[in-house]
TrEMBL record:
<comment type="similarity">
    <text>Belongs to the AHA1 family.</text>
</comment>
<feature type="domain" description="Activator of Hsp90 ATPase homologue 1/2-like C-terminal">
    <location>
        <begin position="12"/>
        <end position="131"/>
    </location>
</feature>
<protein>
    <submittedName>
        <fullName>SRPBCC domain-containing protein</fullName>
    </submittedName>
</protein>
<dbReference type="InterPro" id="IPR023393">
    <property type="entry name" value="START-like_dom_sf"/>
</dbReference>
<dbReference type="Pfam" id="PF08327">
    <property type="entry name" value="AHSA1"/>
</dbReference>
<dbReference type="InterPro" id="IPR013538">
    <property type="entry name" value="ASHA1/2-like_C"/>
</dbReference>
């Protein structure tokens, strides 16, 4: 199994990072403006993009000040099916260290490299959003 991993420090408390990961407003601020999401453990997040034929569906399997975990439960995109996305949050003197993992990929070829590159861009967007209130989402629904 292949995995995408990133680590970054965000100059904000873990609670601010969790708000960005577990609310429709937060997701819209750094990932995509096309989001349907109530937030909270057990909820299903649907995120869409103009180039995608249907939304991605992710279930929140855990959320607290140390960890946020999503599982891809939809059938689109097919290479995400059953993968998990885990955000591990550790307090630091200047804010929060974020360890990101997208696990369960069948292989590291095909769509994997493009997804890894996109997640890298999104890590920068998440950091900007949490620290300044303005990220660079892939799609803004204005």
């Amino acid at each position: 199994m292949a995995r995408i991993v990133f680590e970054l420090e965000i100059e904000a408390p873990a609670a601010a990072v969790v708000r960005a990961l577990d609310s429709a407003e937060g997701i819209a601020g750094w990932w995509t403006g096309d989001v349907d999401f109530a937030g909270g453990e057990g909820s299903i997040m649907r995120v869409g993009f103009p180039v995608a034929p249907k939304p991605f569906e992710l279930r929140v399997d855990g959320v607290d000040d140390k960890l946020v975990r999503w599982t891809s439960v939809g059938d689109f995109p097919p290479h995400w099916s059953g993968t998990t996305i885990t955000w591990t949050l550790t307090p630091t003197d200047g804010g929060t260290q974020v360890h990101f993992g997208h696990d369960g990929w069948a292989s590291d070829d095909g769509p994997f490299p493009g997804a890894a590159m996109t997640w890298g861009q999104l890590m920068t967007s998440l950091k900007q959003y949490v620290e300044t209130g303005r990220g660079t989402p892939l799609y803004r629904k204005d």
